[in-house]
Amino acid sequence: MKIKNWEIFIFVLLYHIGLLALLPFAIPVFSWSAFIFFFVTYVIGGMSITVGYHRLYSHKAYTAKPVFEWLVLIGSLMAFEMSALKWSFDHRLHHNHVDTEEDPYSINKGFWYAHILWLFDYVREFDAKLVPDLMKNPRVMFQDKYYIPLVIAANALVVWFGCLFMEPLAAFYYGFLLRMAMVQHCTWFINSLCHTIGAKTYARELSAVDNAAMALFTFGEGYHNYHHAFAADYRNGIRWYHFDPTKWTIWIASKLGLTDKLRTVNSIILLKSLVQKDRLLIIDRLSHEVEEIATEWTHKVETLATQFDEVSSNLSKKLRELKGVSGAQKMNIKKEVKALRVNFNKSWQDWIQMTRIADKQFELEH
Ligand SMILES: [Zn+2]
Ligand SMILES: [Zn+2]
Predict the structure, then answer these.
(1) Whole-structure pTM value
(2) 42 and 158 share a domain?
(3) Which single residue of 7, 46, 264, 292 has CA 20 to 30 Å from 17?
């Protein structure tokens, strides 16, 4: 690979050398205030990227009040990941052309390419047509125009602030160098690890995977297979127990009137579309099998798929009925919904179990 972006290469190389070279001097000046300083600036930088750059600007998963936008546009200066406009442009390319030549950080070019090397190789051919909404946003355009002076001023201010509570070296090392490295590598891991190790529950045909461990470091972005399958959803971790602080922040902000129009994919429609996708994939694989196996499996797959379709349609219908009634009638329908939900979950479990066996037998993911 020939380096095309020398200035980025030198910047990234220098700060990594700085991190290593200063480490022996940084350890003795470590303190709990230094750790808190690192952690708070890491959270501000990282969350501004996930809440703002990613789910708001790249995917329009919700709308936000200008004051909320300013918070993420300023907070993102702690991340050093370019302006929101450029970041979102690259990211929309990634989603539109994932796993192809036009994907800026394609995993097909290797783990380290997707992680970091793409930064030195990628030449952005900016096309306003991909980001017309952002081109009309004065806040985004302001941040883009003055990004370099803003990022320098904000970080100088933060380090100066840290110096009030700790040794200047500690403020510089923990509140700038280490924090920036941490935010950047965590973002990059989404492009590398979250396209390599994990489960493909929602879109088997893509390289993106769900990786709960990565979600811990990336404020919920680890559920990347779901995200690629349903990118407009403001959530990445859709279950209540999924660690997705980005989703929680957007939700809490909506209660405070700072964000609005949070988009979600209806879970019944979601699972229905998955079953259809799986069904087509398995049927396609069966065409390579001997007739006996193919017939047996086709029957199994079609029976379960039809069953799931019926159960989910019934549940959707009852849920719609529930909206227009009240009193005793409502209680009765609620009971029916409860029973249908049990069926729905059971039917989904049956489907998952069958796909797991099919996965092993026919290697669906490859
Ligand atoms: Zn991705
Ligand atoms: Zn995305």
Answers:
(1) 0.84
(2) yes
(3) 46
Dist. CA 21–CA 18, nearest whole Å: 5
Is residue 83 domain-shared with residue 193, that is, in the same domain?
yes
Length of the chain: 366
182 closest CA partner among 131, 152, 218: 218
Q: Is the dihedral of CA 225, 228, 233, 234 positive or negative?
A: positive
Measured in Å, residue 227 CA sits from the centre of ligand 2 at 6
**Which phi and psi (to 5°) does residue 64 adopt?**
-140, 150
Residues within 5 A (CB) of ion ligand 1: 208
| Residue numbers of the domain that contains 333 | 267-362
Q: Which amino acid is at 216?
A: L
Q: What angle do CA 314, 320, 326 make, to 5 degrees?
A: 120
- 163-201 confidence digits (pLDDT tens): 999 999 999 999 999 999 999 999 999 999 999 999 888
Q: For residue 5, report the distance from its CA to the centre of ligand 1, in Å.
A: 22
Report yes or no on 66 lying in a domain.
Answer: yes
